[in-house]
Amino acid sequence: MLEIILWIAVTVAGFGMAVFASQKAVKQATTLAFGLGIPPFLIGVTLMSIGTDVPEIANSIMSSVTGHGDLNVGDSIGSVATQITLVLGLLPFLAGSFQIGRSRIVLIGFMTVLALGLGIFLMKDGYLSRWDGLWLLTAWVISTIISVKFTPPPSEPIMPNRLKMPNKFLHVLLLLGSLTLVGIGATAAVKGIVEIAEIAGIPEYIISFFGASIGTSLPEIVVDYTALRSGKKDIAIGDITGSCLVDATLSIGSGPLIAPTVISAAMAIKGSIVAAAAMLFVTLVFSLRGKHDRWTGALLLLFYAGAYYVFIAK
Q1: Of 4, 68, 149, 211, which residue is 20 to 30 A from 267 by alpha carbon distance?
Q2: If residue 291 lies in a helix (H) or strand (E), which one and from where to where?
Q3: Buried b / exposed e along 20-41 (16+ C-beta atoms within 10 A)
């Protein structure tokens, strides 16, 4: 009992740090987006998505180095499903309804599904090599370039460039520092969640797909909530969609690039199919509706519950 209480305390402390740092990160990202004349959506898709995925990338590397490939794959793929259903589904309940334009989700959603398909092809032999990691890294680079090239028109005003070079550099450093603190806090939280789950005797892949993925998705929850409460929905949408793309490519591939690892192919493929189905479902919903409120939020939460059933059903 004492050990569980200790890990609960670690989880709460980590989450608290992530919340505090996320508020600073959104402020710096907004200042950069407006001051540099960069669309907030593009900031979310690139810089913010990588920053909030620091826990997944760190977990990928640590899991692969220690020979726990399932923790990498389960967390990364589970984060795609968690972020696009559970996290996105909670946002209208936490921050109110908001518009999601078709152009802001279709392209990245389609590329994420393709990336998950690539992952299935690479993981079907039950092994992730350095070449596999390189292919996934390349997929992320190409997808990011496409995202930048075809970024939809901004739905929020962009101020002319009024930041002097020293101030630009300072804001970049403050943003990266804030995101680092988000990552540290979330990493501590996910460690606590995983330890609690292991004490309860839950299998490793299930822990990573559901437990660890929730923990490593804490940055997205707090950053996107903060952005929406600040009226910066483009940053929130860009971050949550960009993070799914990062998880399906860069996150999975980071660990094997350093240390090739064995994985459970059947579970990895099953998880990838669930994540791809979730991405297609969400893309379809918002292509037809364009508004995210409690009704669409409930649909996404139900989909997440269904994904859980798929894994625990025998």
Answers
A1: 4
A2: strand 291-292
A3: ebbbbbbbbbbbbbbbbebbbb
Rg (CA), the chain: 18
For residue range 29-87, what is the model confidence (pLDDT) as tens digits? 767 766 667 777 777 887 778 877 877 887 788 788 888 888 889 889 999 999 999 99
Q: Which of 169, 108, 121 is nearest to 268 (CA)?
A: 121
d(CA 272, CA 287): 22
Tell me how far apart the alpha carbons of residues 252 and 111 are, in angstroms, rounded to a whole number. 15
Is the pTM here over 0.85, yes or no? no
Backbone dihedral region of 163: left (phi > 0), alpha (psi from -120 to 50 degrees) or beta? beta
Q: Which CATH class is domain 2-312?
A: mainly alpha
* DSSP string computed for 84-96: IIIIHHHHHHHH-
Helices (H), the chain: 2-35, 40-43, 49-52, 54-65, 69-81, 88-95, 106-123, 130-149, 165-199, 204-206, 213-216, 218-229, 233-246, 252-258, 265-288, 294-312
Q: How is 207-230 classified by DSSP, letter by letter? A: IIIIIIHHHHTHHHHHHHHHHHHT
CA dist., res. 55 & res. 75, Å (int): 10
50, HSE (Cβ side, Cα atoms, 13 Å): 13
Q: Which is nearest to 11 in space by CA: 247, 276, 212?
A: 212
Contact call for residues 112 and 248 (beta carbons, < 8 A): yes
